Amino acid sequence: MFAYQHRATRVDNARRQCRMAALMERNPVERFDDERTTAAACVVVLGSANIDSYVYLDRFPQPGETVFGTAGRRGLGGKGANQAVAAALIGAATSFLGQVGADDGGAFVRDTLAGYGVDTSGLRVSPTAVTGSAQITVDAAGENTIVVVSGANAEAGPDILGPESAALDVPAGSIGLAQGELPAEAVAAFARALAARGLRFILNLAPVIDIAPDALRLADPLIVNESEALALLARDGDPRSFGTADALDAARRLAGTVAESVVITLGADGAVAATGDRQWHQPAPVPAVVVDTTGAGDAFVGALAAALAGGADLETAVGRGAAAGSAAVAALGTVDSYDALRALAQDGVVVP
Q1: Does the annotation mark 33 as catalytic?
Q2: Domains defined for the chain, CATH in brackets
Q3: Which residues make up each annotated binding site for ATP?
Q4: What is the mean pLDDT of residues 330-340?
Q5: Which residues lie in coiled coils (predicted)?
Q6: Binding residues for K(+)
Q7: Exposed (0-12), middle (13-18) or buried (19+): which is 152, by Cβ within 10 Å?
């Protein structure tokens, strides 16, 4: 069915470990003699799922100009889906909560996520909206532009968590991860439900949407890039001139006020992070080659979430995110470029 189906076996077993660990917490008297009862790193992703259409070209067109592309392809996309695949390939038991259309695109999303070992039991089907889509252009330098049509993603509401937030029935120490591509009400409900269960909430606020302040304050960490950090600070400026010192200052201002902790990604310059009492810069490993930067940020976020769920502290997790983001730029596409993450996990670079 999938050329990569064999890859999913270990990750699917990890998902069963996570579910089994939850059962053991609820029923401590019972014995589970299966070897799979060892608790695994668990990541629950609430996010967008799209069909990505790529066009590769030598340079971006000017307004009103037509240029010829060099190649085109279709693949899985959406920040939520990308980050779920990254976390799963690294070794975290991963489940996905989202919404697609009752169309071929929705079936493709479900099958592809499942093929990578992601639990899709929380993926809903809208009877009226189409599956979300994105049009992506990538130039010869690996830079990209992205236009998203939200489709069914825009219909996701707080009820996507299920009755009594049953989708969060996971062990203590698990991680919830969301982005800015779903309605703010759904993201806020997710954050509050995680907090009520004592679970950590990670928010990749991309794009920046108007999240209720009490829910945003729960983010630990809040992950943004340079332009998103400027938007949160209500500051004008060119993100390209936003240096490491600027990022450290922005992270310091946001941490402990807007969110519990903050990570600002800086592309090839790595990332900076801040908690209530300290700030630091995490350089990124220099990739051997840059082919396509699409999805590198999602690889960073997925790896960071998997590391935190595996017991790493934030400084270590940011370093592992930087390693994953750097590895992901060496091949075309988003999840198609994530094979390198499996190698990082096997080498002990990402997950403890």
Answers
A1: no
A2: 5-46+81-122+157-346 (3.40.1190.20)
A3: 225, 265-270, 297-298
A4: 78
A5: none
A6: 292, 294, 328, 331, 333, 337
A7: buried
